[in-house]
Structures are given as C-alpha cells and as structure tokens.
Design a protein that fits this description.
It contains 9 helices and 2 strands, in the order αααββαααααα. The chain has 158 residues and is mainly alpha-helical. Strands 1-2 form a two-stranded antiparallel ribbon.
C-alpha cells in the first residue's frame, strides 16, 4: 500500500527509524519543515492559546502541525528545535506552551547534552529565557552535570 511505500522510501533514505520510533515520515519527506522558524513559532504559540470563535466555540488559535514539527525537530534538527523554542519563549507564551517547551527541552537535552552549551550562552545573553528553563522536566536519563546546568539556568540572575 502507499503508506508502506512511503515508509520504505523514508527508511532507505535514512531519515526515519521504525526501530527507534523517532522522527516522522512526513517531516523526513520535507512536508513539515518547509515553514520558516517565525511561522512555526506563530502557529505553535497559537496552538497553545484558546479563544472563542464566531460560533462561541472554544478553539486553538494555531495549527497542530507546529507542535508536531517541534517534536520532529527535537530528533532531527536539535539546533533548530532550540532556536524555535528560544524565539517562542521571547513572545510571552502561555503556561501551557511553557510546559510543552519544558518537556521538549527535557528530551532534547537527554538526547543531545552538548546543546546545553548553546542554551547556556543564549540564556546568559537573554535572561528572559530563564523562565523557559524553569519548565524543563527532570528526567533521570539527563546527564547529572547537564541537569545541574539546567537548574542554574532556571534561576533568576542576581
């Protein structure tokens, strides 16, 4: 069937590992990442905001693909994932968005501990990023030295 053909194509290209359960066949085919960082940020922040529409129905204000894109980036492009989170964190995100970013950062730093250096540099340059760091979820699989850095980055500067 078509789904199996697509999955085989993606697996052959080396962009999706069914064994690891990571990545997305849609992301790997470039469908989800054609968007600019600013477009992903706008839709991601909107996705975590609710508002009544003209029919008085409470609806999310952004597209679900943005959430899925960030999750894919966590595995496939960790630097861009942090870049999108950093941009979104500077735009007054909701607590729901901050919680999502915290969970995403937890996975990101578990799998890519070296990214803590870039994050630490960005937090030092932009103290407002301290807030998003305070939402990182503790994970036993995060290297203890990385977790110590996360804790120090989540404290307001003195």
């Amino acid at each position: 069937n078509d789904r199996n053909s697509i999955m085989a194509l993606v697996a052959v290209r080396g962009n999706f590992s069914a064994a690891s359960g990571r990545g997305s066949p849609f992301h790997s085919l470039g469908i989800m990442t054609e968007r600019s960082d600013s477009e992903v940020v706008a839709e991601l922040l909107g996705f975590h905001r609710m508002a009544l529409d003209s029919d008085k129905v409470l609806r999310r204000q952004g597209a679900e693909w943005a959430r899925d894109t960030l999750t894919d980036l966590m595995y496939d492009d960790p630097g861009r994932c942090w870049r999108v989170i950093r941009l979104a964190a500077l735009e007054d995100p909701t607590e729901e968005a901050l919680m999502f970013f915290g969970v995403t950062l937890s996975g990101l730093l578990r799998d890519h501990p070296d990214l803590i250096e870039v994050i630490a540099h960005d937090v030092a340059e932009t103290p407002k990023l301290t807030e998003v760091m305070s939402w990182v979820m503790e994970d036993e699989a995060i290297d203890p030295s990385v977790w110590a850095r996360i804790e120090s980055l989540s404290e307001p500067s003195k």
